[in-house]
Design brief:
Largest sheet: 7 strands, mixed
Oligomer: single chain
Strand content: 15-25%
Number of helices: 16
Structural class: alpha/beta
Helix content: 40-55%
Bound molecules: nicotinamide-adenine-dinucleotide
């Protein structure tokens, strides 16, 4: 076993040079499942990477060249699936591990989809609506052979939204005829699923509820601290408040606010809409980013950035449970410390899958040309996530490992089986 672990480790080092430290979690699973080096390589490797140059004429007449990317990790279980990110930091390296993470998410929740990630290295806040539309349409003109409802289905991610998806659908349909299933996260009027926008945040609430059941516990009167008040954090806060959880602190990029008696999330949303940040909210006092993360609470929900909890911070957290709403907010080293301290982590590949599950429902609806009601979507979402939670809790108990290790083992095994069947 030790020998095999060492072999895998050597290969992981080289893969990590071009991928991300979160690949350590995949490596751990491969070692625990006693996979050979060849099997691990099959899992860690990528199917395809595409980079396209897009010279855009700006509104002032100048030309600026942007680069668009799509990284496809695997499609053994179904078409590639993953977000499209518009951000200056977008590059192949940044997208590779995110594509792999998508594969693990779809595999864990049993979706017939693979994993991918893509984007454009632009700052959408600095582009006019016309520039953004032109760039998006240009991306489709250059990339259309690599996406499609049976090939690769993008969705909104950082810096993109339902409008961007609508432009993609339209440009793709110009080439191939009406094809709503080429993207998910569209406006409902043009084929989007009801409740897609709130799905990741609501999914966090569902997973936390399942965790409480698993512990024969209840959510009402538990306390939560939420880092991030965007798409994931805001809807998670609302969902948790509706489940009776007391939200005692919330932060956004400008800082945080806290109130031990609980924050009224609806009022905080109004305040943020009016002032642009959570700071200065009447119903709470301001608190800085680091102090907020170290507050004593039942649940610390990380819904903003990657690599927030490193080894040092992990030693100082006072939460009972860390919930990963963002992608990889706890580093590998941080995770090892949390395991030592018996702080539970509800891992990203389980907790933040609500969005991709509802994206899957949208894709199914588009193929069937039959919209579902929001109630049906919520019911199916709850049922899918509950099954995934049950599987993860059972493996964690049976194999005496953390929930993250359990989730990675299940997802990795499914991926490996599918890749093996299709490749050999
Ligand atoms: P978003 O841009 O809507 O919101 C991000 C929030 O984080 C904003 O409120 C921002 O102010 C805040 N933030 C930024 N820096 C911060 C800091 N230092 N401290 C506290 N808050 C800070 O993004 P989102 O869609 O909510 O996504 C959040 C994370 O979750 C990202 O990592 C994303 O990749 C991941 N994720 C999103 C989805 C989804 O469906 N939106 C699904 C899975 C994973």
């Amino acid at each position: 076993m030790a020998k095999k672990s060492a072999r895998v480790h050597d290969r992981v080092k080289s893969v990590r040079e071009e991928m991300h430290e979160s690949m350590q979690f995949l490596k751990e699973a491969a070692v625990a499942l006693d996979y050979s080096d060849r099997e691990y390589q099959l899992l860690a490797g990528l199917s395809r990477e595409v980079r396209v140059a897009m010279p855009l004429q700006r509104d002032d007449g100048s030309i600026e060249t942007y680069y668009g990317y799509r990284v496809q990790h695997h499609n053994a279980l179904g078409p590639y699936k993953g977000g499209l990110r518009y951000h200056p930091s977008v590059n192949l390296n940044a997208l590779r591990w995110l594509a792999c993470l998508m594969s693990l998410k779809t595999a864990l929740v049993g979706l017939p989809l693979g994993g991918a990630k893509g984007g454009i290295d632009c700052d959408p806040k600095l582009l006019s609506r016309r520039e953004l539309r032109s760039l998006t349409r240009y991306f489709v003109q250059k990339m259309h052979r690599n996406i499609g409802p049976n090939l690769d289905i993008p969705a909104p991610d950082v810096g993109t939204n339902a409008q961007v998806m609508a432009w993609i659908q339209d440009e793709y349909s110009v080439i191939y005829g009406y094809t709503p299933g080429v993207v998910t996260g569209k406006p409902t009027l043009v084929g989007g699923a009801a409740g897609r926008e709130s799905a990741t945040g609501r999914g966090l609430g569902i997973v936390m509820q399942q965790y409480a059941h698993h512990r024969a516990d209840e959510l009402p009167n538990k306390t939560a601290v939420i880092q991030g008040f965007g798409n994931v954090g805001l809807y998670a806060a609302m969902d948790l408040m509706n489940r009776g959880v007391k939200i005692i602190a919330v932060s956004d990029s400008s800082g945080g606010v806290t109130n031990k008696a609980g924050i009224d999330v609806q009022q905080l949303v109004k305040h943020k809409n009016a002032t642009g940040s959570v700071l200065g909210f009447d119903g709470a006092r301001d608190i800085d980013h680091q102090a907020l993360l170290k507050l004593k609470c039942n649940f610390l929900v990380l819904a903003a950035l990657s690599s927030v909890v490193d080894e040092a911070l992990a030693r100082r957290l006072k939460a009972d449970v860390v919930v990963e709403g963002a992608n990889n907010p706890v580093t590998y080293a941080g995770d090892l410390v949390l395991r030592d301290r018996d702080i539970i982590v509800l891992p990203d590949i389980l907790a933040s899958t609500g969005g991709v599950v509802v994206s899957y429902f949208e894709w199914v609806q588009n193929i069937q040309h039959m919209p579902w009601s929001e109630e049906q979507i919520t019911e199916e979402l709850t049922s899918r996530l509950a099954s995934a939670c049950d599987a993860v809790f059972a493996v964690a108990t049976g194999q005496n490992c953390s929930l993250r290790e359990a989730a990675h083992r299940i997802a990795t095994e499914r991926l490996k089986e599918a890749l093996w069947i299709t490749a050999f």
